[in-house]
Amino acid sequence: MKRLEVRFAHTPADIWQVGTLAEHGGRIYFEYAATFLRQGYSLSPFKLPFAPGLHEHNDRRFGPLPGLFDDSLPDGWGLLLMDRHFARIGHPLAEIGPLERLSYLGHRTMGALTYHSPAVKDEVCGSVFELQELARNAQQILTGSAAEILPALLRAGGSPGGARPKVLVGYDPATETVVSGEAELPPGYAPWIVKFPFGIDEAHAGPVEQAYALMAHAAGIAMPETRLFTTAGGDHFFGARRFDRQGGRRLHVHSFGNLIHADFRVPSSDYTDLLKVTARLTRNHDDLLRVFRQAAFNVVAHNRDDHVKNFAFLLDDETGDWSFSPAYDLTFSPGPGGEHSLTVAGEGRHPWVEDLTRLAVGADISPRDARTILDQVRAAVADWNAHAKAAGVSTGIRRRIGLALSRLPS
Question: Which of 82, 191, 276, 349 is the most buried (most CB within 10 A)?
Fold first, then answer.
């Protein structure tokens, strides 16, 4: 039997044992530690019982892991890099299971959960734990200006992130230097994510996403700090400050999709579902308004890549309260088949004011609040040209996106 100890790392000096993940006969089990049940909070309220005993993961249609732990794994590009690394060191991919992947990440995860070898190891699970040492040995530590370091990190393959190549870096605004690596950052450095263009993603992706960040901020959407990092070759990479790190603390982040075990690759959810989950989880009307504002923005700004993992919730580990996270991955996108990944009150291809209005009514958002939010969003998007110029979007791309936005109903 393979086992991994799951920990909750508040800070480097304040770490709780959450429980134990185990794999036996192709089945995944989890058991909360008794100490965490006494002092902690439910980390995945909809799908993982916060109760004593062994919990088997039976929702195999969703994936090999419970959503709580799947959120610790990278998507797309990050998994590709992980597979390449395993192949390079001679580990057959057929033998790499979900616990091996979590073990490889160890403490180098997004959010607050980390993964470690237990105090007592089974004889048959050595491969799980040697990956932790391999990961430490493979970690690259580089320091210098963004213009020097970011191209080097891109050549090195980046680090686990999402569908586009991403790297986790520390950035010191006082010296404008960047430090690579996913360990604890030196004093003065703040944690950031930097994205690179890839494949069909063109060189303008960074400036466009920065323009959308500026536009979203103008629309009243809670956004992390963002900026463009420029290289000596003139490339512009989009960066966002990480909201899962605050003042030396690691925050627990749970994506909407993994919270309800909805596969982000298969569009099957509606903004109505997101609003219902928000109401049950946060019990905060302001969070419902934030979700509605982001839904309105995605509709008006033509961001149709609004899948279930592009929304998340944060847990306050001191109070047990959940909140809707800052927005991320906002950009111009045609979506799958030209439709929104999340339908809007049932409409995916051409949602507009009447659909957003039905969405608001179903969430007990007053007509006045809905109108005010929609007016603010439309005013911000109407200023697309100014936001795009401020972000350095080229004239041709600025006009092409502006034309698409102007075709929306009035």
Answer: 82
Where residue 137 falls among pLDDT bands split at 50, 70, 90?
A: very low
Q: Using DSSP, state whether 250 is helix, strand or coil.
A: strand
Question: What CATH class does 248-406 carry?
Answer: mainly alpha
Alpha carbon distance 36, 32 (integer Å): 7
Q: What is the pLDDT of residues 357-376, one digit of tens each?
A: 999 999 999 999 999 999 99
Q: What is the mean pLDDT of residues 264-283?
A: 95
- The amino acid at 168: L
Cross-strand pairs, 230: 236
Domain with CATH 1.10.1070 in the chain: 248-406
Residues 6+ apart with CB under 8 A from 74: 81, 82, 160, 161, 162
User: How many alpha carbons lie under 13 Å from residue 383 in its C-beta half-sphere?
Assistant: 18
Q: Which of 182-196, 281-295, 327-341 has the highest mean pLDDT?
A: 281-295
CB 271 within 8 A of CB 344: yes
Structure token digits, residue 48: 């993982």
In the chain, the amino acid numbered 356 is L
State the angle between helix axes of 353-362 and 285-300 in degrees (0 to 180), rounded to the nearest 10: 170
**CB-neighbour burial class of residue 239 (10 A; exposed 0-12, middle 13-18, buried 19+):** buried
Residues in the chain: 410
Query: In whole angstroms, what is the distance from residue 49 CA to residue 19 CA?
Result: 13
Radius of gyration of the chain (CA): 21
